[in-house]
């Protein structure tokens, strides 16, 4: 069966520090992969999606970047975090419907 | 531009009462349609999905949704709400590789 792993679960980082969140999927090949951000009390904002290795589509110009170095690995990064980067980050994979990881709560202080 | 609208930010219902959460979408073609539920601090769980065929779809936990093409809607319903249904509910649409979510509706269940 397919599973998705996202880590870490929580993260507190100072402003200006780098960020790396990792997501891996098991049990499927060539999935679509997504990064979403959920601000407190708000819906999900699509940040990036990928349809294959090295293929990244960015939805919103921002302080973040994404990479897909392997078929089932999706990484969200930042060189210098801003306070506004705080939020709940969710990784998902899909063929048709999306399946989500458990999320990473990022607090930038 | 593609969009998903959940007009109700917060709904409160009494336990045992019926529930309907609204969702409207704007897409150039009929997308795939989904409802997800999120408990606090957790990821999203798929409740049900519509790809094609019968426009009334059944999901987990006693939920159902009806696709109405003429209204571009995909409303979620449950005949009798349980206290454990209190959560955030998200409508989503998918088309090709794109998946968009509504802003969510927070459901509170009164005893």
Description of the molecule:
Chain A has 109 residues and is mainly β. Chain A has strands at residues 3-7, 10-13, 19-26, 32-38, 44-52, 55-58, 65-70, 73-78, 87-94, 98-100, 104-108. Chain A is globular, with a radius of gyration of 13 Å. With 111 residues, chain B is mainly β. In chain B, 0% of the residues lie in helices and 55% in strands. Chain B is built from no helices and twelve strands. Chain B has strands spanning 3-5, 10-14, 19-21, 24-26, 32-38, 44-50, 56-58, 64-68, 73-78, 87-95, 98-101, 105-110. In chain B, the strands form three sheets. In chain B, strands 2, 5, 6, 10, 11 and 12 form a six-stranded mixed sheet that branches. In chain B, strands 3-9-8-7 form a four-stranded antiparallel sheet, with no helix packed on it. Chain B is globular. Chain B starts with a strand and ends with a strand. Chain A binds chain B through residues 6, 32, 34, 36, 42-44, 46, 49, 51, 57, 88, 90, 92, 94, 96-103, 105, and chain B through 6, 32, 34, 36, 41-46, 49, 51, 90, 92, 94, 97-104.
Write the layout of secondary structure elements.
The complex is a heterodimer of chains A (109) and B (111).
Chain A: E1 3-7, E2 10-13, E3 19-26, E4 32-38, E5 44-52, E6 55-58, E7 65-70, E8 73-78, E9 87-94, E10 98-100, E11 104-108
Parallel strand pairs in A: 2-11
Antiparallel strand pairs in A: 1-3, 3-8, 4-5, 4-9, 5-6, 7-8, 9-10, 9-11
Chain B: E1 3-5, E2 10-14, E3 19-21, E4 24-26, E5 32-38, E6 44-50, E7 56-58, E8 64-68, E9 73-78, E10 87-95, E11 98-101, E12 105-110
Parallel strand pairs in B: 2-12
Antiparallel strand pairs in B: 1-4, 3-9, 5-6, 5-10, 7-8, 8-9, 10-11, 10-12
């Amino acid at each position: 069966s397919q599973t998705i792993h996202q880590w870490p679960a929580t993260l507190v980082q100072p402003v200006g520090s780098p960020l790396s969140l990792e997501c891996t999927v098991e049990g499927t090949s060539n999935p679509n992969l997504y990064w979403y951000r959920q601000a407190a009390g708000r819906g999900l904002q699509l940040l990036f999606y990928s349809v294959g290795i090295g293929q990244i589509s960015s939805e919103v110009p921002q302080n973040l970047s994404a990479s897909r170095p392997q078929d089932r690995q999706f990484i969200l990064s930042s060189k210098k975090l801003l306070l506004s980067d705080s939020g709940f980050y969710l990784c998902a994979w899909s063929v048709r419907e999306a399946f989500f990881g458990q999320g990473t709560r990022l607090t930038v202080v | 531009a593609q969009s998903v609208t959940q007009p109700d930010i917060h709904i409160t219902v009494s336990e045992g009462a019926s529930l309907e959460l609204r969702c409207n979408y704007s897409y150039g073609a009929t997308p795939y349609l989904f409802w997800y539920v999120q408990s606090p601090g957790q990821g999203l769980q798929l409740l049900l999905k519509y790809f094609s065929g019968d426009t009334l779809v059944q999901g987990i936990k006693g939920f159902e949704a009806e696709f109405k093409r003429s209204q571009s809607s995909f409303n979620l319903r449950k005949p009798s709400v349980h206290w454990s249904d209190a959560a955030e509910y998200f409508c989503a649409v998918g088309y090709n590789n794109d998946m968009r979510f509504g802003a969510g509706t927070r459901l509170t269940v009164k005893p």
